Amino acid sequence: MPIFPPRPRTIRTSAALLLSACLTVGLAACGAPAAPREQAAPGFPRTIDNCGRTTEVQRPPERVVSLNQASTEILLSLGLEDRIVGTSMWTDPVLPELKQAADGLPRLAENMPSFESVLNAEPDFVTGSFAATLGKGGVATRTQFEELGVPTYLSPTDCGTKDNSGSGDGSRSEPLAMDVLYGEIRDLARVFDVEQRGEKLIGDLKRRLDGLDVDASGTSVLYWFANSDSPYLAGCCGAPGIMTRAVGADNAFDDTHAEWPQTGWENVAERDPDVLVLGDLTRRSQTAESAETKIEFLESHPVTQDMTAVKRKRYVTVSGQALNPTIRTVDGAAELAAELRRFGLAR
Protein backbone atom coordinates (compact mmCIF):
# COMPACT_ATOMS: atom_id res chain seq x y z
CA MET A 1 0.00 0.00 0.00
CA PRO A 2 1.51 3.36 -0.97
CA ILE A 3 2.06 5.72 1.94
CA PHE A 4 1.49 9.41 1.39
CA PRO A 5 2.90 12.16 3.62
CA PRO A 6 0.34 13.74 5.94
CA ARG A 7 -0.94 17.17 5.12
CA PRO A 8 0.42 19.95 7.35
CA ARG A 9 -1.35 20.05 10.70
CA THR A 10 -1.74 23.81 10.43
CA ILE A 11 -4.14 23.32 7.52
CA ARG A 12 -6.28 20.90 9.50
CA THR A 13 -6.23 23.13 12.58
CA SER A 14 -7.30 26.17 10.57
CA ALA A 15 -10.11 24.15 9.07
CA ALA A 16 -11.20 23.00 12.51
CA LEU A 17 -11.33 26.61 13.74
CA LEU A 18 -13.41 27.58 10.71
CA LEU A 19 -15.78 24.68 11.34
CA SER A 20 -16.23 25.64 15.00
CA ALA A 21 -16.97 29.21 13.98
CA CYS A 22 -19.50 27.99 11.43
CA LEU A 23 -21.21 25.92 14.09
CA THR A 24 -21.53 28.99 16.29
CA VAL A 25 -23.14 31.26 13.71
CA GLY A 26 -24.69 28.61 11.44
CA LEU A 27 -23.35 27.17 8.22
CA ALA A 28 -25.43 29.42 5.99
CA ALA A 29 -24.31 32.61 7.76
CA CYS A 30 -20.71 31.47 7.71
CA GLY A 31 -20.84 30.82 3.99
CA ALA A 32 -19.14 27.45 4.62
CA PRO A 33 -16.64 27.73 1.75
CA ALA A 34 -15.43 24.36 0.56
CA ALA A 35 -11.80 23.58 1.21
CA PRO A 36 -9.56 24.17 -1.83
CA ARG A 37 -9.06 21.06 -3.93
CA GLU A 38 -5.71 19.48 -3.12
CA GLN A 39 -3.44 17.86 -5.65
CA ALA A 40 -4.44 14.25 -6.23
CA ALA A 41 -2.14 11.44 -5.16
CA PRO A 42 -0.93 8.93 -7.80
CA GLY A 43 -3.87 6.76 -8.86
CA PHE A 44 -6.35 9.33 -7.54
CA PRO A 45 -8.83 10.99 -7.45
CA ARG A 46 -11.21 8.10 -6.91
CA THR A 47 -14.95 8.44 -7.00
CA ILE A 48 -17.62 6.19 -5.52
CA ASP A 49 -21.33 6.23 -6.36
CA ASN A 50 -22.80 6.08 -2.88
CA CYS A 51 -26.48 6.21 -1.92
CA GLY A 52 -27.39 8.67 -4.65
CA ARG A 53 -24.32 10.85 -4.17
CA THR A 54 -20.78 10.91 -5.52
CA THR A 55 -17.99 10.60 -2.99
CA GLU A 56 -14.58 11.72 -4.23
CA VAL A 57 -11.21 11.50 -2.49
CA GLN A 58 -7.96 12.98 -3.71
CA ARG A 59 -5.80 10.54 -1.73
CA PRO A 60 -6.32 7.73 0.80
CA PRO A 61 -7.87 9.35 3.89
CA GLU A 62 -5.54 9.75 6.85
CA ARG A 63 -8.02 10.89 9.53
CA VAL A 64 -11.31 9.02 9.35
CA VAL A 65 -14.17 9.26 11.85
CA SER A 66 -16.47 6.22 11.71
CA LEU A 67 -19.78 7.09 13.33
CA ASN A 68 -21.05 3.53 13.88
CA GLN A 69 -19.47 0.37 15.27
CA ALA A 70 -20.23 -1.60 12.09
CA SER A 71 -18.23 0.81 9.95
CA THR A 72 -15.39 0.87 12.48
CA GLU A 73 -15.10 -2.92 12.45
CA ILE A 74 -14.89 -2.98 8.66
CA LEU A 75 -12.07 -0.42 8.76
CA LEU A 76 -10.27 -2.43 11.46
CA SER A 77 -10.70 -5.61 9.42
CA LEU A 78 -9.01 -3.81 6.53
CA GLY A 79 -6.02 -2.98 8.74
CA LEU A 80 -6.78 0.76 8.88
CA GLU A 81 -6.66 1.34 12.64
CA ASP A 82 -3.88 3.91 12.22
CA ARG A 83 -6.25 6.05 10.13
CA ILE A 84 -9.14 6.15 12.64
CA VAL A 85 -9.27 9.32 14.76
CA GLY A 86 -12.73 8.86 16.24
CA THR A 87 -15.55 6.32 16.64
CA SER A 88 -18.99 6.26 18.25
CA MET A 89 -22.31 4.38 18.54
CA TRP A 90 -21.07 1.15 20.15
CA THR A 91 -23.56 -1.55 21.18
CA ASP A 92 -21.11 -4.42 21.82
CA PRO A 93 -17.49 -5.08 22.71
CA VAL A 94 -15.25 -5.09 19.66
CA LEU A 95 -14.74 -8.44 17.92
CA PRO A 96 -12.07 -10.44 19.79
CA GLU A 97 -9.85 -10.72 16.74
CA LEU A 98 -9.93 -6.92 16.36
CA LYS A 99 -9.39 -6.05 20.03
CA GLN A 100 -5.67 -5.39 19.75
CA ALA A 101 -6.17 -3.16 16.71
CA ALA A 102 -8.98 -1.29 18.48
CA ASP A 103 -7.04 -0.61 21.68
CA GLY A 104 -6.61 3.12 22.08
CA LEU A 105 -9.12 4.16 19.42
CA PRO A 106 -10.71 7.41 20.58
CA ARG A 107 -14.44 7.09 21.23
CA LEU A 108 -16.14 10.40 20.67
CA ALA A 109 -19.27 9.01 22.35
CA GLU A 110 -20.79 5.65 23.23
CA ASN A 111 -23.97 6.78 21.50
CA MET A 112 -24.56 9.76 19.17
CA PRO A 113 -21.69 12.28 19.17
CA SER A 114 -22.15 15.97 18.56
CA PHE A 115 -21.24 17.54 15.24
CA GLU A 116 -18.67 19.68 17.03
CA SER A 117 -16.95 16.69 18.65
CA VAL A 118 -16.60 15.05 15.24
CA LEU A 119 -15.16 18.20 13.72
CA ASN A 120 -12.75 18.61 16.61
CA ALA A 121 -11.21 15.28 15.58
CA GLU A 122 -10.24 17.06 12.30
CA PRO A 123 -11.44 14.29 9.95
CA ASP A 124 -10.66 14.15 6.27
CA PHE A 125 -13.29 11.41 5.78
CA VAL A 126 -16.45 10.40 7.68
CA THR A 127 -18.27 7.08 7.44
CA GLY A 128 -21.61 5.97 8.83
CA SER A 129 -23.70 2.81 8.82
CA PHE A 130 -27.09 4.47 9.15
CA ALA A 131 -28.81 7.51 7.64
CA ALA A 132 -30.14 8.15 11.15
CA THR A 133 -26.54 8.87 12.18
CA LEU A 134 -25.10 10.42 9.02
CA GLY A 135 -28.12 12.43 7.96
CA LYS A 136 -30.88 14.76 9.08
CA GLY A 137 -31.58 14.31 12.78
CA GLY A 138 -28.22 12.60 13.29
CA VAL A 139 -24.73 13.99 13.82
CA ALA A 140 -25.02 16.11 10.66
CA THR A 141 -26.07 15.73 7.07
CA ARG A 142 -23.63 14.64 4.40
CA THR A 143 -24.07 18.04 2.76
CA GLN A 144 -22.94 19.79 5.95
CA PHE A 145 -19.74 17.75 6.05
CA GLU A 146 -19.06 18.05 2.34
CA GLU A 147 -19.60 21.82 2.30
CA LEU A 148 -16.72 21.94 4.76
CA GLY A 149 -14.47 19.84 2.53
CA VAL A 150 -14.98 16.51 4.32
CA PRO A 151 -16.06 13.62 2.03
CA THR A 152 -18.54 11.14 3.50
CA TYR A 153 -19.61 7.55 2.95
CA LEU A 154 -22.91 5.96 4.00
CA SER A 155 -23.31 2.19 4.08
CA PRO A 156 -25.30 1.08 1.02
CA THR A 157 -27.12 -1.38 3.30
CA ASP A 158 -29.09 1.63 4.57
CA CYS A 159 -30.19 3.05 1.22
CA GLY A 160 -31.20 1.70 -2.18
CA THR A 161 -34.26 -0.48 -1.56
CA LYS A 162 -34.53 0.79 2.02
CA ASP A 163 -36.88 3.71 2.74
CA ASN A 164 -35.87 5.81 5.75
CA SER A 165 -38.41 8.58 5.18
CA GLY A 166 -40.97 7.43 7.74
CA SER A 167 -40.82 6.97 11.47
CA GLY A 168 -38.95 4.13 13.13
CA ASP A 169 -36.01 2.32 11.56
CA GLY A 170 -37.23 2.38 7.97
CA SER A 171 -38.57 -0.37 5.74
CA ARG A 172 -37.30 -2.44 2.82
CA SER A 173 -39.04 -3.14 -0.47
CA GLU A 174 -36.71 -6.11 -1.12
CA PRO A 175 -34.70 -8.46 1.09
CA LEU A 176 -31.19 -7.27 1.85
CA ALA A 177 -28.44 -9.43 0.34
CA MET A 178 -24.88 -9.91 1.59
CA ASP A 179 -23.67 -8.67 -1.78
CA VAL A 180 -24.61 -5.15 -0.65
CA LEU A 181 -22.35 -5.46 2.39
CA TYR A 182 -19.60 -6.88 0.20
CA GLY A 183 -20.01 -3.78 -1.95
CA GLU A 184 -19.46 -1.58 1.11
CA ILE A 185 -16.23 -3.42 1.93
CA ARG A 186 -15.09 -3.09 -1.68
CA ASP A 187 -15.90 0.65 -1.76
CA LEU A 188 -13.99 1.41 1.44
CA ALA A 189 -11.04 -0.71 0.34
CA ARG A 190 -10.89 1.29 -2.89
CA VAL A 191 -11.10 4.63 -1.08
CA PHE A 192 -8.20 3.64 1.19
CA ASP A 193 -6.22 1.95 -1.62
CA VAL A 194 -6.26 -1.49 0.03
CA GLU A 195 -8.26 -3.43 -2.56
CA GLN A 196 -6.48 -6.74 -1.98
CA ARG A 197 -7.35 -6.64 1.71
CA GLY A 198 -10.96 -5.96 0.81
CA GLU A 199 -11.19 -8.92 -1.53
CA LYS A 200 -9.62 -11.19 1.08
CA LEU A 201 -12.17 -10.09 3.71
CA ILE A 202 -15.04 -10.63 1.27
CA GLY A 203 -13.71 -14.06 0.33
CA ASP A 204 -13.45 -15.10 3.98
CA LEU A 205 -17.03 -14.00 4.73
CA LYS A 206 -18.39 -15.76 1.63
CA ARG A 207 -16.65 -19.02 2.48
CA ARG A 208 -18.00 -19.00 6.01
CA LEU A 209 -21.57 -18.21 4.98
CA ASP A 210 -21.63 -20.65 2.06
CA GLY A 211 -20.17 -23.37 4.25
CA LEU A 212 -22.98 -23.47 6.82
CA ASP A 213 -24.76 -26.32 5.02
CA VAL A 214 -27.84 -26.44 7.25
CA ASP A 215 -31.54 -26.90 6.55
CA ALA A 216 -34.00 -25.77 9.21
CA SER A 217 -37.06 -25.62 6.96
CA GLY A 218 -40.32 -25.59 8.90
CA THR A 219 -38.70 -23.90 11.92
CA SER A 220 -39.90 -20.41 12.88
CA VAL A 221 -37.45 -17.92 14.38
CA LEU A 222 -38.10 -14.59 16.10
CA TYR A 223 -35.39 -11.93 16.50
CA TRP A 224 -35.61 -9.56 19.48
CA PHE A 225 -33.19 -6.63 19.47
CA ALA A 226 -34.20 -4.64 22.56
CA ASN A 227 -36.98 -3.00 24.62
CA SER A 228 -39.32 -5.02 26.84
CA ASP A 229 -42.22 -2.54 26.85
CA SER A 230 -42.68 -2.47 23.08
CA PRO A 231 -40.09 -4.87 21.66
CA TYR A 232 -38.11 -4.21 18.50
CA LEU A 233 -38.48 -7.38 16.45
CA ALA A 234 -36.93 -8.10 13.08
CA GLY A 235 -39.07 -7.77 9.98
CA CYS A 236 -38.56 -9.82 6.86
CA CYS A 237 -35.79 -8.15 5.04
CA GLY A 238 -32.85 -6.82 7.03
CA ALA A 239 -29.78 -8.62 8.39
CA PRO A 240 -31.89 -11.19 10.29
CA GLY A 241 -33.45 -12.08 6.93
CA ILE A 242 -29.97 -12.98 5.66
CA MET A 243 -29.47 -15.20 8.69
CA THR A 244 -32.87 -16.84 8.28
CA ARG A 245 -32.32 -17.63 4.62
CA ALA A 246 -28.82 -18.95 5.33
CA VAL A 247 -30.27 -21.68 7.57
CA GLY A 248 -33.47 -22.29 5.59
CA ALA A 249 -35.79 -21.27 8.44
CA ASP A 250 -38.82 -18.95 8.59
CA ASN A 251 -38.96 -15.54 10.25
CA ALA A 252 -41.97 -15.27 12.58
CA PHE A 253 -42.51 -11.68 11.38
CA ASP A 254 -41.81 -12.33 7.71
CA ASP A 255 -45.04 -10.54 6.81
CA THR A 256 -43.71 -7.07 7.62
CA HIS A 257 -41.18 -5.07 5.60
CA ALA A 258 -40.41 -2.69 8.47
CA GLU A 259 -36.78 -3.07 9.58
CA TRP A 260 -37.53 -3.28 13.30
CA PRO A 261 -41.29 -3.15 13.87
CA GLN A 262 -42.51 -2.68 17.42
CA THR A 263 -45.44 -4.75 18.60
CA GLY A 264 -47.11 -6.13 21.71
CA TRP A 265 -46.24 -9.37 23.46
CA GLU A 266 -49.71 -10.75 22.79
CA ASN A 267 -48.92 -10.67 19.07
CA VAL A 268 -45.61 -12.43 19.71
CA ALA A 269 -47.26 -15.13 21.83
CA GLU A 270 -49.87 -15.77 19.15
CA ARG A 271 -47.12 -16.47 16.59
CA ASP A 272 -45.37 -18.73 19.12
CA PRO A 273 -41.98 -19.10 17.35
CA ASP A 274 -39.90 -22.24 17.75
CA VAL A 275 -36.70 -20.32 18.52
CA LEU A 276 -35.89 -16.89 19.95
CA VAL A 277 -32.76 -15.06 18.78
CA LEU A 278 -31.80 -12.51 21.43
CA GLY A 279 -29.53 -9.54 20.90
CA ASP A 280 -26.95 -9.34 23.69
CA LEU A 281 -26.16 -5.63 23.86
CA THR A 282 -23.87 -3.88 26.33
CA ARG A 283 -25.18 -0.36 25.68
CA ARG A 284 -27.70 1.19 28.07
CA SER A 285 -30.24 3.14 26.04
CA GLN A 286 -33.29 0.82 26.00
CA THR A 287 -34.87 -1.64 28.39
CA ALA A 288 -33.87 -5.33 28.09
CA GLU A 289 -30.55 -4.74 26.36
CA SER A 290 -28.62 -7.82 27.50
CA ALA A 291 -29.64 -11.37 26.63
CA GLU A 292 -29.76 -12.20 30.34
CA THR A 293 -32.30 -9.44 30.96
CA LYS A 294 -34.35 -10.59 27.98
CA ILE A 295 -34.50 -14.17 29.26
CA GLU A 296 -35.49 -13.03 32.76
CA PHE A 297 -38.33 -11.02 31.22
CA LEU A 298 -39.54 -13.83 28.95
CA GLU A 299 -39.61 -16.38 31.76
CA SER A 300 -41.47 -14.14 34.19
CA HIS A 301 -43.97 -12.29 32.00
CA PRO A 302 -47.42 -13.92 32.05
CA VAL A 303 -47.90 -13.51 28.29
CA THR A 304 -44.54 -14.93 27.23
CA GLN A 305 -43.67 -17.56 29.83
CA ASP A 306 -45.83 -20.23 28.17
CA MET A 307 -44.43 -19.74 24.66
CA THR A 308 -42.89 -22.87 23.13
CA ALA A 309 -39.40 -21.38 22.79
CA VAL A 310 -39.46 -20.10 26.37
CA LYS A 311 -40.66 -23.34 27.95
CA ARG A 312 -38.04 -25.31 26.00
CA LYS A 313 -35.36 -22.63 26.52
CA ARG A 314 -34.60 -22.38 22.85
CA TYR A 315 -32.59 -19.18 23.04
CA VAL A 316 -29.87 -18.16 20.62
CA THR A 317 -27.71 -15.33 21.94
CA VAL A 318 -25.97 -13.10 19.38
CA SER A 319 -24.31 -9.70 19.50
CA GLY A 320 -26.44 -6.72 18.67
CA GLN A 321 -24.14 -6.02 15.75
CA ALA A 322 -24.97 -9.43 14.25
CA LEU A 323 -28.57 -8.25 13.91
CA ASN A 324 -27.51 -5.20 11.90
CA PRO A 325 -26.07 -5.43 8.37
CA THR A 326 -22.45 -5.96 9.37
CA ILE A 327 -19.58 -8.38 8.98
CA ARG A 328 -20.99 -9.96 12.17
CA THR A 329 -24.14 -11.06 10.35
CA VAL A 330 -22.10 -14.07 9.23
CA ASP A 331 -21.24 -14.79 12.89
CA GLY A 332 -24.93 -14.58 13.75
CA ALA A 333 -25.86 -17.02 10.99
CA ALA A 334 -23.19 -19.46 12.16
CA GLU A 335 -24.36 -19.24 15.77
CA LEU A 336 -27.97 -19.73 14.71
CA ALA A 337 -27.06 -22.76 12.59
CA ALA A 338 -25.13 -24.37 15.44
CA GLU A 339 -27.96 -23.86 17.95
CA LEU A 340 -30.65 -25.11 15.57
CA ARG A 341 -28.65 -28.32 15.20
CA ARG A 342 -28.30 -28.57 18.97
CA PHE A 343 -32.06 -28.13 19.38
CA GLY A 344 -32.65 -30.90 16.83
CA LEU A 345 -34.43 -28.47 14.50
CA ALA A 346 -32.02 -28.55 11.56
CA ARG A 347 -30.53 -31.11 9.23
TrEMBL record:
The keyword ATP-binding does not apply. InterPro entries: ABC_Transporter_SBP, ABC_transptr_periplasmic_BD. The keyword Signal applies. Residues 154-174 are annotated as: Disordered. PROSITE patterns: FE_B12_PBP, PROKAR_LIPOPROTEIN. Pfam families: Peripla_BP_2. It comes from the Bacteria. Coiled coil: none annotated. Residues 1-34 form the signal peptide. Residues 63-347 form the Fe/B12 periplasmic-binding domain. Belongs to the bacterial solute-binding protein 8 family. This is Iron complex transport system substrate-binding protein. It comes from Prauserella isguenensis. The lineage of its organism: Bacteria, Bacillati, Actinomycetota, Actinomycetes, Pseudonocardiales.
